[in-house]
Design goal:
Length: about 250
């Protein structure tokens, strides 16, 4: 069992008040963005929280197998949360809240070699009117790292971001571009691919041309752009390796 998988299971079981194992079922439908109806393997029908506000293009379909976590918190309106979904060939992680936790574990373990020389990453760092996911300091230098979770698979077999027009993502890439111009600052845009069937990463130009243009400008301005895949199963996520990027 991979180290990151152990960490993710620990997060489920200890930090989030989850039951020990994920529960399997079949997706009946998604509605109002935040709700999914699921038929569990036991035959019970439940409504679960969908922790992904995007369109979820290419990563959700009626009749697909899903893995749910179950909260033991009696105050929660919905006990179940959809964590993973299977499209017939691969599991896909759909809970966007786990992306930063997975990357934090990888940073702590030195698994992201491009930034392994930095340590003690602070989280949710305010920069002006925005917050960036991570920041590390050493020798009067700062390094900011922003994480985006990727689940969209294009018709060309490459994973893409974003899956809808995102002004927030546009603002983040613009902020990293500005920060990279400062002599004492480095910046990284990190794409965590939460599915196992992509050949490489590229920005979704057809969906959000402004973001794609901004990402190219960021790279030209000194922002490091990284994309790493993951090995996803109904038991959790194992942090993977760097994958090709075409901007």
């Amino acid at each position: 069992m991979g180290w990151s998988l152990i960490v993710l299971k620990f997060i489920f079981r200890r930090c989030c008040g989850m039951a020990e194992d994920l529960v399997l079922g079949t997706l009946v439908k998604r509605y109002k963005r935040f709700f999914v109806d699921v038929c569990l393997e036991s035959g019970e029908s439940v409504t679960a929280h969908c922790p992904n506000t995007g369109r979820m293009t290419s990563c959700i379909g009626e009749g697909w197998k899903v893995a749910l976590s179950r909260s033991t918190n009696p105050k929660r309106r919905l006990a179940y949360t959809m964590e993973y979904i299977h499209n017939g060939s691969t599991w896909i992680g759909v809970n966007t809240h786990h992306a930063n936790r997975i990357v934090a574990s990888a940073l702590a373990a030195g698994q992201i070699t491009e930034v392994s020389g930095w340590g003690d990453w602070r989280r949710e760092v305010r920069v002006g009117e925005h917050r960036l996911d991570f920041m590390s300091e050493r020798d009067d230098q700062r390094h900011y790292l922003e994480v985006k979770m990727v689940t969209l698979l294009g018709s060309d077999g490459w994973v893409q971001f974003p899956d809808t027009v995102s002004q927030r993502a546009q603002a983040h890439v613009g902020l990293l571009t500005d920060l990279a111009q400062q002599a004492d600052t480095q910046a990284t845009m990190f794409f965590l691919v939460h599915r196992g069937d992509g050949a490489g990463f590229r920005p979704a130009e057809e969906i959000d041309a402004k973001y794609a243009q901004g990402l190219r400008l960021a790279a030209q301005s000194g922002v490091q752009v990284l994309a790493y895949d993951t090995q996803v199963s109904a038991s959790g996520t194992v942090f993977g390796k760097s994958i090709p990027i075409v901007l």
